[in-house]
Amino acid sequence: MSILQNIFYFIFALGILVTFHEFGHYWVARKAGVKVLRFSIGFGKPLFVWKRNRDGDEIEYWIAMIPLGGYVKMLDQREGKVAEKDLPRAFNTQPLAKRFAIVAAGPVFNFILAILFYWAVFVIGVTAERPLLGEPDSGTVAQASGFQNEDEVLSVADMPVRSWAEFRLGLIEHGLDGGGVPVLVRQANGEQVTRTLALADESLLAEEGDAVSRLGFRQWWPELPPEIGGVVDKGAAQDAGLKAGDKVLRIDEMPVSNWHEIVSIVQNHPAQPLEFTIERDGATQRIMVIPATREVDGKQQGFIGAYQHVPETVKERLLVKIEYDPLTAFGQAAKKTWDMSVLTLRVLWRMVTGEASLTNISGPITIARYAGITAQIGLTTYLGFLAVISLSLGVLNLLPVPMLDGGHLMYYLIELVKGSPVSEAFELRGQQIGMAILAMLMGIALFNDFQRLMQ
Predict the structure, then answer these.
(1) Lesser CB count within 10 Å: N end or C end of the chain?
(2) Does residue 149 form part of some domain?
(3) Residue 263 counted as domain residue
(4) 183 in the same domain as 151
(5) Do residues 152 and 232 both lie within one domain?
(6) Which of 281, 309, 337 is the last residue in one of the domains?
(7) String of b and e for 291-317 (b: at least 16 CB within 10 Å)?
(8) Do 242 and 205 fall within a single domain?
(9) What distances in angstroms separate CA 191 from CA 66, 139, 154, 185, one per listed residue?
């Protein structure tokens, strides 16, 4: 996936989410009788401008140069002179309830959009990895809690689990506070038992890296013959001439009997030439492969961009199709949006209190990469990505930070208590603080992005 493709899918995603968010402000403002002057997607100089007459109001529609947001400009005495006849339609002259509804509409529409995306995913159906556990790593919490090879997770703290992604989410959601987390599993012999994940006071997100892996959990994977199922474009395997169907017999005269041995050898020899002895079409060949290098958990690892052949019978055991009828899908989508929003707030709070690492914050570079990756995987994966980003925008915009919708809602709550709007000086100081907070968060996010790129 090229950088240009990542950027395209990122801007496409952002365009949809920002448009829907700003449409929320726009739609409720017009329903409330407020005069809308402009609807802009993006900031800065307009690239495209057109005007439409809506119920007697001429409204400008902009697509601006900087695609990192948008705004709805409404008639407002604080931004310019307003004719006497138009005062009843100015935003700042509206009752508190109307102003509150107009500002809250943007984040609310993001949650509605997330529900729609999740609904589409559940109706279309998504093929996911079954929550089958491999042998837990030695000395880890998972091993100490009694989890065994080929345990299939059925629920986490009474939350039904149907996929590996749901298992991971359940562990984080119910394990943030530590303690014991009950996990219902079906053992290899078919018997169902409940194992208690003994987290004690361990904070899952306090360190950088994958929290689930640190607990010792890994996906079950059968021991398969060392046959190549395919190679990645422009990877070391393709460059060397390896092809799907090749059976690896030896690497540097070291016999290999399964795929795990290939992975282990390659990972331990980054940027070092390896001689692969393979069998292709009944004939033996020798091919020199130089693994590429990447950093994983601070260590250099080799990789060649090849994946193993997986028989259909194994795929049937590893994968599960998750889908619902349209009505059930709506309920599941609403629940998923609620659960993810609450989890996002809990993680943000732990970052504020220092119980979660700031490395969990991602910026535009990481988001753009995931936009490209999910789009390449398939439609439902990309829709799921859009749902997560949409609800995240909704949650972040409701935070009581000046400059965000939540900051304005905070001012309105203060106004409700004291009986009058906050002063312009107070609002100006709040904007300065809000800009400082947002600049700091953006700086952390970009730093994390560049760190991930370097790795």
Answers:
(1) C
(2) yes
(3) yes
(4) yes
(5) no
(6) 309
(7) bbeeeeeeeebbbbbbebbbeeeeeee
(8) no
(9) 57, 25, 12, 8
Contact 340, 305 (CB under 8 A): no
Same domain, 169 and 253: no
211 within a domain of the structure (yes/no): yes
- Residue 452 pLDDT greater than 60, yes or no: no
Provide the CATH number for the domain around residue 153: 2.30.42.10
Q: What band does 89 get if pLDDT is binned at 50, 70 and 90?
A: very high
Tokens of 47: 């690239």
On whether residue 455 sits in a domain, the answer given is: no
Tell me how many helices (H) and strands (E) the chain has: 13, 16
Task: For residue 55, give every residue at least 6 positions away whose Cβ sits within 8 Å of its Cβ, in sequence order, or none.
Answer: 30
- The residue to which tokens 């989508």 are assigned: 333
For residues 358-371, give the mean pLDDT. 68
Let me know: does 161 contact 217? Beta carbons within 8 Å: no
Q: Which residues are catalytic?
A: 22
Domain count of the chain? 2
pLDDT above 90: residue 186: yes
Please list, in sequence order, all residues whose beta carbon lies within 8 angstroms of the beta carbon of residue 213, skipping any fewer than 6 positions away. none
Mean pLDDT, rounded, for 241-264: 92
| Nearest C-alpha neighbor of 449 from the set 375, 369, 365 | 365
Q: How far is CA 182 from the centre of its chain?
A: 26
Q: Are residues 206 and 252 in the same domain?
A: no
Q: Pick the residue with more confidence: 323 or 447? A: 323
pTM above 0.85, yes or no: no
Query: Which SS3 state, helix, strand or coil, does residue 386 take?
Result: helix
Q: Read off the pLDDT of each residue in 239-256 and give the average, rounded to a whole number.
A: 92
b/e per residue 96-109 (b: at least 16 CB within 10 A): eebbbbbbbbbbbb
DSSP structure string for 106-140: HHHHHHHHHHHHHHHHHHH-EEEE--BB-PPPTTS
Q: Which domain covers residue 201, as residue numbers?
A: 129-221+318-322
pLDDT: is 328 or 12 the higher one? Answer: 328
* Mean pLDDT of all residues in 229-246: 91
Domain boundary among 282, 309, 336: 309
Q: What mean pLDDT is reported for the chain?
A: 86
- Specify which residues 13 forms β-bridges with: none
